[in-house]
Amino acid sequence: MKRDVFQAIADPTRRAILVLIAAQAMTPNALAEHFDTSRQAVSKHINVLVECELVKQEKVGREIYYHLEAAKMKEIDKWLEQFKKLWENRFDQLDQVLFNLNKKQNEK
């Protein structure tokens, strides 16, 4: 079963993991050190991120390193962009209303 990417990023621990590995690839043990949960719990979060293709793994010797999958993050950004544009338009309209109100006040 493939999970929805938004289900994955809905969890604050998974978002924190993404932030950590965005800076550098990390092993599960290194990631677990940043949380007050067990390594097993962190591994479950990592598995969800892997299933959603937000994270990829690379084996180096006996260690597994997790990397951020930037292409998948761009998909999320692209989806969010439509809402950014909507809110920017609304703020621009609000700015215009406030400008007009201020202009009327100054004319009195």
Please report the total strand number as a whole number: 2
* H/I helix tally: 5
Largest sheet: 2 strands, antiparallel
Structural class: mainly alpha
- Termini separation comes to 66 Å
Low-confidence stretches: none
Task: Using brief descriptors, characterize the structure shown.
108 residues, mainly alpha, 5 helices, 2 strands, elongated
What does this structure look like?
- This is ArsR/SmtB family transcription factor.
- Residues 1-88 form the HTH arsR-type domain.
- With 108 residues, the protein is mainly alpha-helical.
- It is built from 5 helices and 2 strands; from the N terminus they run H-H-H-H-E-E-H.
- A hairpin with a 2-residue loop joins strand 1 (55-60) and strand 2.
- It is elongated.
- It starts with a helix and ends with a helix.
